[in-house]
Amino acid sequence: MEANNDKIQTLRHEILEKENQIAELEEINQVLNDNKIMSFYNGQYTSEKKVNDVMKTVVHSLTGKTLSRLTGTGVLSRLRIEAKRMAQIQVAEAMVNAGGDASTVNGNCLHQDATSKFHHHFKSFQITTSDNITDSLGLSEFAGGDSKTLIATFQENLSELSNALKHD
């Protein structure tokens, strides 16, 4: 009788594992079927599990290989930092290479936008280059609404872009 109980426990454990695998595959199918991947919703980031699923899908699509697992939040954090740095380099190079000529009014056009969430104010700057491509310079928490703070925030964004190019 104890052997049967052990077998039942083993089978229940296997069923639970299979149900978890089915749930994971259904989530991946949902991600693949959606045109948009939701990473920020209702004022917060969605689970890192979805990010892992997206990364696994991209690697599989590009290489045909399957990742068994991704490491924890530390690696994801470093990947986000590197992605930000690469984006900053891309924007800085686009600004430098677009150049433009002030005498012919062809060049970069600066845009700005602001938003507030839970009493925190954020300012973003975008640039449209002469080839009509718009890139974001960055998003910063913005403490005040005066021009001095605005210029300091803009200079901080430019400094980050400059540093990204220096260390490229």
Q: Short summary of the structure?
A:
It contains four helices and seven strands; from the N terminus they run αββααβββββα. The protein has helices spanning 2-33, 48-63, 73-98, 147-166; strands at 40-41, 44-45, 100-101, 106-107, 109-117, 120-128, 134-141.
Description:
The chain contains 4 helices and 7 strands, in the order αββααβββββα. Strands 5-6-7 form a 3-stranded antiparallel beta sheet. It has a two-stranded antiparallel sheet with strand order 1-2. The chain has a two-stranded antiparallel sheet with strand order 3-4. The model has no long low-confidence stretch (mean pLDDT 76). Strand 3 (100-101) and strand 4 form a beta hairpin. Helix 1 (2-33) crosses helix 2 (48-63). The protein has 2 domains: 2-70, no CATH class; 81-166, no CATH class. The protein has 168 residues and is α+β, with helices and mostly antiparallel strands. It has helices spanning 2-33, 48-63, 73-98, 147-166, and strands spanning 40-41, 44-45, 100-101, 106-107, 109-117, 120-128, 134-141. It is elongated and about 80 Å long.
Structural topology:
Elements: H1 2-33, E1 40-41, E2 44-45, H2 48-63, H3 73-98, E3 100-101, E4 106-107, E5 109-117, E6 120-128, E7 134-141, H4 147-166
Antiparallel strand pairs: 1-2, 3-4, 5-6, 6-7
Helix pairs in contact: 1-2, 3-4
Annotation, overall tally of beta strands? 7
Low-pLDDT segments, ≥5 res: none
Number of helices: 4
Shape: elongated
Supply the number of structural domains: 2
Strands across the major sheet, in which order?
5-6-7
Could you give the distance between the termini?
A: 68 Å
Rounded mean pLDDT is: 76
| Strand/helix succession | HEEHHEEEEEH
- CA radius of gyration: 24 Å
Secondary-structure content class: alpha+beta
Question: How is the biggest beta sheet arranged?
Answer: 3 strands, antiparallel
Strand residue percentage: 15-25%
Percent of residues in helices comes to 55-70%
